[in-house]
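User: Let's play a game. I give you a shape written as tokens, and you guess the letters that built it. Ready? Here's round one.
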């Protein structure tokens, strides 16, 4: 199978551990470097990790399953997303399946225009054992929902380190995604509101898309 946007291996690593041969693409070299440096050596024969543009990848391989988990699809600009779906279709074997998960855009649309910073959790750095305070804030723009994740690491010798990462999600509706799948060539597709395959509703926590070639 192929995972698009594999990042640091949050999904790819368990799949390989479960016995699957997995190709993983991502456009972020730092994330892939982290994945390679922390990937179990005994699993390497079943993994194939590449730096690639998600809108312009080319392999001489067809896959029965292509995944895009962890909200990656909604972070792509519309034109990039359309190009990505076209390449997904080209790389699927006959009757192959494409599956993507993303936040429910309807839920984002119902939120106020701004959400002030809110503490999400406190993590412990496994290497230094120093605590990391994680908080988030968000704002809606004309067609995007932008989440800012703030990480404050308390240094054991005193002081702190701060990092902010912004993630922008497209506010396109489910119908827009289904039209893009159809434009890419898919003729069979469905959607769910969560990972239990509950019927999609405006208040669903997720939008799960499945499309068959």
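Assistant: Ready! My guess for every position:
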């Amino acid at each position: 199978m192929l995972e698009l946007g594999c990042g640091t291996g949050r999904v790819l690593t368990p799949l390989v551990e479960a016995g699957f041969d997995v190709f993983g693409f991502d456009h972020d070299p730092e994330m892939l470097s982290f994945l390679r440096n922390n990937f179990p050596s005994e699993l390497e024969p079943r993994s194939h990790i590449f730096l690639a543009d998600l809108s312009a990848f080319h392999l001489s391989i067809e896959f029965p399953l292509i995944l895009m988990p962890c909200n990656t699809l909604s972070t792509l600009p519309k034109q990039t997303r359309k190009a990505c779906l076209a390449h997904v279709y080209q790389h699927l074997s006959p009757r192959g399946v494409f599956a993507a998960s993303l936040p429910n855009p309807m839920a984002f649309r119902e939120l106020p225009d701004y959400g002030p910073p809110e503490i999400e959790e406190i993590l412990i750095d496994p290497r230094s054992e120093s605590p990391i305070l994680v908080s988030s804030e968000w704002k809606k723009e004309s067609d995007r929902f932008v989440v800012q994740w703030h990480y404050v690491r308390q240094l054991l010798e005193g002081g702190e380190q701060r990092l902010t990462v912004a993630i922008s999600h497209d506010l396109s509706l489910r119908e827009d995604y289904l039209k893009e799948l159809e434009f890419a060539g898919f003729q069979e597709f469905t959607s769910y509101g969560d990972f239990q395959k509950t019927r999609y509703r405006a208040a669903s926590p997720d939008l799960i898309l499945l499309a068959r070639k």
